[in-house]
Design a protein that fits this description.
Strand content: over 45%
Structural class: mainly beta
Helix content: under 10%
Number of helices: 1
Radius of gyration: 25 Å
Strand order of the largest sheet: 1-4-5-6-8-10-11-13-14-15
Length: about 325
Amino acid sequence: EYAQIFRAVRNQFSADLAERLAASAAVANIAGPYIGTVNLYGYTAGVSGSFGLGDEGPSDIVIPGVGSIEAIPGQAGAVNGRAYFGMNLGSLFGAPYDPFHPDEERSPPGYFSLDRIDVYLSGLRLTRSLNNPNGFNGRVRYTIRGEGGQVRYHLATGYNVYGSWLRFLGTSLGFGYYQTNQSIRLTSSELSTLGLVLTEGTNLTWTGQNVGVWTTKVESYPIELRSGVQFMRALNFTIGAGYSRQSGSTDLFFTRFGPLTINSAAASSNDAILSLSFAESAEVPKYLSYLIAGVELDIWAVKVGLEGLITPEDSWGVSGGIRAEF
């Protein structure tokens, strides 16, 4: 019966969980570098965090000839973060062209002008240990290392549609590279329970501790088109679409150990000790297409924003950041 339980958990849960973790990590890697603007006309620097979430897995595991394990938590997610710096290359050689305050002596930049090119660099090195974070009863230790960059070309410059009340922010095409190496270890400090229902109707309670470790390496090469508008010089709205090629994988190890309690009308007793461990590996999706939408509060030089990303595979990501533009 143990072999049947192991095969059922692997075929119906653990292999699928590793694939969904890999997909979530890929989405978080793409969403990680918060851009927050369409075209840049100076310099910007800030920090951002992102979260990727895959579709929810099965809640019950059916074990042929034995029974089922009920209410298995199966949501997969991944987190990421970046500090970043961006600049318009025209800023290196004096004041760049500002389409919202045009200089009568300067014409709009030509197609080969450096004023049309923005460059972003980002990276993060972080190791932290947390006790009982966000309702999880236990210890979490994670290490994130990431770096990357993006070059964006102004396909269309912005302009004032209705004075400073309504502005078109332009359209840009970006090419990027982002890499993330991540390791997370979770150790529960309290016992949790899972219900097992045998085919003959006997109910069992599996009380145990969980230890999970997963490591992920993702490399993404996104191509992205974005455009947007600004209202009242205070709200920037961005929309866009992208396509990314990925490489990398997620390795997952999980173990659970604890007693099985037989629950019956007559009595309850500890009948056995059940230990279950598995290791899985899954490749990240090789290609991802996605749509993005964002909003940013523009308070003079400080901007606070939020962007959402969704893929046709029902994976989605959210990134938020705060930046300064000067």
